[in-house]
Write a structure and sequence with these properties.
alpha+beta; 4 strands
Length: about 200
Amino acid sequence: MKPSTRWALVVLAIVVIGVLLLLWTQQRDQPSESGVAKAPADPVAAAPKSEAMPGAEKKPEAPAAPIAPKADEPPITATVLFEFDRAALRPGEAAKLDELAGQIKGQTFDRVEAVGYADRIGTNPYNLRLSEQRAAAVRGYLGSKGLDAGRIRIEAAGERTSVTGDACKDMGPERRENRKLVQCLQPDRRVAIEVVGMR
């Protein structure tokens, strides 16, 4: 036997063994209804995914669409008011936080921002500290309702960004005893909450 014929037979034997091993592995990986593996009946299903069948077009896989924030819906917000010189939640205001917690529980969002404010009566450092305590009270309450307190960011704004503006101007001395002024400044004693990155 010529050496070239001998090599041709060796190569042919290797190819045949390789094909048999490939078929055996495919049969073993595909269980049948009886629990015994069998060769697939569909030649298209049996073809490796990397190889295209003759005459069949390969369709490109669509990339997964990123989850975008809901642009058509308004952001979820709430504002809770506080008593003069107090950081404890008022009973009537807790219902607003209950509603907000119910809206976002189980939803995907980046964070909740709670910004505390104070009215203009008192010193700036005192009002800044008070506004931070108010924001912390909101974070604590929302945490007790099952929200991750680590995703609730608080900020102290003190007496800046007054909502009352000039409405309470010229109402007498700026002291706690001036009940008319204290009542007029009620909207400034607040925590504004916003859910950021709702998806």
